[in-house]
Amino acid sequence: MGCVGSAPAKGDGNAKKIRKPKPWKHPQPITKSELEQMRDEFWDTAPHYGGQKEIWDALRAAAAEPDLSQAQVIVDCAGVIVQNTDLTICYDERGAKYELPKYVLSEPTNMIRDN
């Protein structure tokens, strides 16, 4: 790790720029409140899947960040190694795998209004 003004070393190009996930469709139409409930349940149980709580917290913050450049900073500062640029598969520096479902990263194309 270098200082703020340092440049990456040659060959240190394994850091991937994150991007928004591709549009996706839930198996059935879903409301915003149902989506939020699914997200809350995932994040409440995520640390039980293994890995470090700090990495899960960083991934949650990055997933909730609408500004991709800020999300990139969060991921980079946490030392997250991005496998898929949409954050669906990541690793920490110890090699633990973190899998995020698309519903925590974006909204489905078939979302309906709450009543």
Give an overview in words:
With 115 residues, the chain is α+β, with helices and mostly antiparallel strands. The chain has a domain at 30-104: Bacteriocin As-48, Chain A, CATH 1.20.225.20. The protein is 32% helix and 10% strand. The chain has three helices and five strands; from the N terminus they run E-H-H-H-E-E-E-E. It has helices at 32-45, 53-64, 68-78; strands at residues 30-31, 81-82, 89-91, 97-99, 111-112. The strands form two sheets. It has a three-stranded antiparallel β-sheet, with no helix packed on it. A two-stranded parallel sheet has the order 1-5. Strand 3 (89-91) and strand 4 (97-99) form a beta hairpin. Helix 2 (53-64) packs antiparallel against helix 3 (68-78).
**What is the CATH fold-level name of the domain at 30-104?**
Bacteriocin As-48, Chain A
Question: What top-tier CATH class of the domain at 30-104 fits best?
Answer: Mainly Alpha
Residue runs with pLDDT of under 50 for 5 or more positions: 1-13
Query: What's the CATH H-level homologous superfamily of the domain at 30-104?
Result: Ub domain-containing protein, DC-UbP/UBTD2, N-terminal domain
Give the class from helix and strand content and strand pairing: alpha+beta
Average pLDDT for all residues: 88
Q: What's the shape?
A: globular
Rg result: 16 Å
Number of helices: 3
Number of strands: 5
Order of helices and strands: EHHHEEEE
Tell me the distance between the termini.
50 Å
